Every structure is written in structure tokens, then in C-alpha cells.
Amino acid sequence: MATPHVLLLSLLCTLLVSWGDAACAEVDSDTEAVAGRGFKLGCISCKRRSEVDSTSTVEWFFRPKGEVEFVHIYTYNEYGQNIEDDQFLDRVDWNGSKTSNDIQDASIYLLNVTFNDSGTYRCLFNRRLLYGRYEYDTNVIKLVHLTVVAKATRGTASIVSEVMMYVSIIGLQVWLLIEMIYCYRKIAAAGEEALREAAKNQTQNLPPKC
Ligand SMILES: *[C@@H]1O[C@H](CO)[C@@H](O)[C@H](O)[C@H]1NC(C)=O
Ligand SMILES: *[C@@H]1O[C@H](CO)[C@@H](O)[C@H](O)[C@H]1NC(C)=O
Ligand SMILES: *[C@@H]1O[C@H](CO)[C@@H](O)[C@H](O)[C@H]1NC(C)=O
Predict the structure, then answer these.
(1) pTM of the model
(2) Is the pLDDT of residue 21 over 70?
């Protein structure tokens, strides 16, 4: 009877295949950068059908906080990268897909973030899908709203929940220890009592459950 094995194997295969498809995940970018440090502006656009070949170019735009217009700051295409705006000169590095023109990850890395980098970033994929002799152009746009802070902040809620976690873990252990000591004493006392009773009455008492 090989049936269970076959079933298990096909289940495993299904899992592996779906896992392979999920290799590209559209994770949202972080949105809080620390002044003076580097920051990765994330932008991922997975292809709907991974088996179709495509070539992509990527452009990034920036709208400073309080402004209305986006300015073109960065291009990545088959010739490599180009920084288009003086504010970002020598401060941007490609952090996206490296091995092919079939870009799904268009993330860039900002060096030495300043407060002037606060604002909205727009990442634009120009993707050309190649179906044999046919070509089909698509665009994908993603936005990142970046806040620059002097120091990394943590939400109060996360601090409170971490403290509560430690308190409850320690509290539980102490309670467990007290309970164990109490129980041990009770059993020991009951045992002695039972022995004395047994010696007197010649009857056997079981120690009570704790
Ligand atoms: C992104 O680029 C920066 C600067 O070149 C580098 O330090 C960092 O390791 C890169 N990160 C990834 C995930 O490629
Ligand atoms: C970034 O900061 C480091 C250390 O403060 C400095 O050495 C480097 O020259 C800076 N890079 C740019 C592009 O400003
Ligand atoms: C930020 O912008 C202001 C106004 O445009 C400018 O005076 C200042 O030098 C900039 N600061 C940095 C660190 O680029």
C-alpha cells in the first residue's frame, strides 16, 4: 500500500511549488529613517506570472515635505544607475535585484540621511512583458512616506507589552516555585501523618492529592 506515501509526496510537492511562487513577496518599506544613518527605501513589485519573461527599468521620484511637485531623483536601467538630482548626489545606491533586467525588487539605499530627505518617494516600474513576438508594457507605482527622526523611536505600546511579557514570565515562575514548595511540604507532612496512622491502626491511607 503506497497510497499514503504518494499522498504525502504530492502534498509536499504542492507546498514546495507554492513556496517557490511566493519567493517574491511585496513587503512594504520602512518609513522611519534616522538622521545621519543609511536607510533602505523599499519597493518590490512581484510579477503576476513568474514564467513570463520581462525587462524593467526603474525610476524614483521625490516630493519634499510641504512641496507639491515630485522631482526625478534616480534611474536604474540596463546601463546601470544614474542619480538625477543634486540633493542625492553620491548618496544613493541600488539595493534591488542584481542579477537580471527582470527587476522585481527596486529598492534603493540612502546614505547619510538628512532631515531634508523627509517627504514622499515614488517608485515607478516600467515593465515590458515578452510573450514570444508580442510585447506588453505595464507600469507599477509605489509610494513611501518617509519621516526622518533624530533617534530611533519605539512605540510606547511595544515597550509596555515587552515589560508586561517579562513581568508575567517572572511572575509565573515565582508562582510555580512557591506552589512546588508548598505542595512538597504538604505531601511530606501527609506522608508522615499516614505512616503514623498506619502504625496505629494497621490501615493504609493514601496521601491526599495535592
Ligand atoms: C544596500 O546598499 C548599501 C550601500 O551600498 C549596503 O551597505 C547594504 O548592505 C545594501 N543592502 C542590501 C540588502 O543589499
Ligand atoms: C557620510 O557620512 C560619513 C561619516 O559621517 C562620511 O565619512 C561620508 O563622507 C558621508 N558621505 C557622504 C556622501 O556625505
Ligand atoms: C536643508 O535644506 C535647507 C533649505 O533648503 C538648506 O539650507 C540646508 O542646508 C539643507 N540641509 C542639508 C543637511 O542638506
Answers:
(1) 0.66
(2) no
Atom 2 of ligand 2, nearest CA residue: 112
Burial profile 104-123: b = 16 or more Cβ within 10 angstroms, e = fewer = bbbbbebeebeeebbbebbb
**Does the pLDDT of residue 71 top 80, yes or no?**
yes
Of all ligands present, the nearest one to the C-alpha of 87 is 3
Alpha-carbon distance 124 to 101, whole Å?
15
153 Cβ closer than 6 Å to some ligand 3 atom:
no
Quick check: is 90 in a domain? yes
* Ligand 3 site, residue 114, Cβ cutoff 6 A: yes
Tens-place pLDDT, residues 140-179: 999 999 999 988 777 777 888 889 999 999 999 999 999 9
CA-closest residue to ligand 2 atom 11: 112
User: Do the domain assignments include residue 194?
Assistant: no
Tens of pLDDT, residue by residue over 78-128, are 889 999 999 999 999 999 998 777 899 999 999 999 999 999 999 999 999
Tell which one of 111, 113, 114, 117 to mutate to probe ligand 2, the residue whose CB is within 8 A of the most ligand atoms: 111
Proximal ligand: closest to the CA of 109: 1
On whether residue 186 sits in a domain, the answer given is no
Contacts for 53 with CB less than 8 Å, ≥ 6 apart: 102, 129, 130
Domain that includes residue 84, residue range = 29-153
What CATH number should be reported for the domain holding residue 121?
Answer: 2.60.40.10
Number of domains in the chain: 1
The answer to whether residue 190 is domain-embedded is: no
Instruction: Confirm if 76 and 57 have CB atoms less than 8 A apart.
Output: yes
